[in-house]
Amino acid sequence: MQTVTPDTLHADADFIARLTAIRHDIHRHPETAFEETRTADIVAAFLDGLGLEVHRGLGVTGVVGTLKGARPGQRVIGLRADMDALFIEEQTGLRYASAVPGKMHACGHDGHTTMLLGAAEKLAQNPDFAGIVHFIFQPAEEGLGGARVMIEDGLFDMFPCDAVYGLHNAPKEPLGSVQTRPGPFLSAGDTWEVIFDGSGGHGAMPHTATDPTVPAGQFITSLAQIISRKVPSNDAAVISVGHIAAGTYDSPNIIPSRVTVRGTARSYRPEIRDILETSINAFATHCAAPHGVTARTIYTRRYPPLVNTAPEVAIAAAAATSAVGTDQVTIDAAPIGGSEDFSFMLEKVPGAYVMIGNGDGPDAAFVHTPKYNFNDALIPIGVAYWVNIVATELGG
């Protein structure tokens, strides 16, 4: 099986036009986590039209299409795209902008879905490979762990894979540039909450109250010490505060009885994740005790770190090089602070995740913002990458 280039795909103008229309349609009708029914209908109908075996319902709205190669082979790989949108009011002014108030495809999952559909079509037209490909269309990547739910529903029991591959567009990066690395690539994404409880009281007589605002303030300013004094200097980690709630706006003369502080914690190794959880609780308790205040910590481990395996990174790099050239491929990229639930799949199966430049310039809107838009010029590049993964893995 031969690898392909985006230029080869561009020669099929009807193919590119049809994929672009699908992307715009999905963009105009965004669906958030576990509600991607319309999108799943589009995906399932498309795959069924190609003659693939189609399974629906894993992870509520997930879709898996299976294509068997024309040549005998035992190796099985999975290619994954995410389908869900975000709760953001779109401000792009595009003719195909979201028609759903308060929801938009602000992370490019409409493009990810479209590129994998395009690859399924090209591979179905020429299944000159040995083995099996599962096209995995996943719901609820944005915070609710759709990958984990699909796995719990039996994804890899029903569709065993020897390797899995995923990708994400990278705004501001050159079009088609590919970044990846073996080992930890994206961070674990955890949420923490500390609740400081005291008696509260009159602001003019603080000596009569146990005041939770003082230890809460000390706790917030002490968080940086966890990174500088508890985390080894050759490791990376982040703790950020994202929410503080206390008291009533109209009652500034009242010391509140409760202060709630919430935030995120990011790390790349299980040991560092343990340190962050233990230290946040310990620092909160130690800040609270001298003031007669109690501190209760809730630490929620959300997405694990995304860890690529070296052999599959080499395959991904070869596939990307065939699509965009050696100069566009980086295999020692710096770890990224964001999180991604493809990490759950990589805990079960070897694989590789790459970032592909969206080519929209340094001033472009970033993901998760109201003016972000996936670049249609990336569609043939992504299709070529996916086809080349199959050619590299199964086409020999």
TrEMBL record:
Q: Which UniProt keywords apply?
A: Hydrolase
Q: Which SUPFAM superfamilies match?
A: Bacterial exopeptidase dimerisation domain (SSF55031), Zn-dependent exopeptidases (SSF53187)
Q: Which CDD domains does the record associate with it?
A: M20_Acy1-like
- Per its UniProt record, what Gene3D superfamilies does this chain match? 3.30.70.360, Zn peptidases (3.40.630.10)
Cited InterPro entries: Amidohydrolase, Bact_exopeptidase_dim_dom, Peptidase_M20, Peptidase_M20_dimer
Q: Where does the Peptidase M20 dimerisation domain start and stop, copy by copy?
A: 191-285
By its UniProt entry, which PANTHER family does this protein fall under?
METALLOPEPTIDASE, PUTATIVE (AFU_ORTHOLOGUE AFUA_6G09600)-RELATED (PTHR11014:SF63), PEPTIDASE M20 FAMILY MEMBER (PTHR11014)
The protein depicted here goes by the name M20 family metallopeptidase
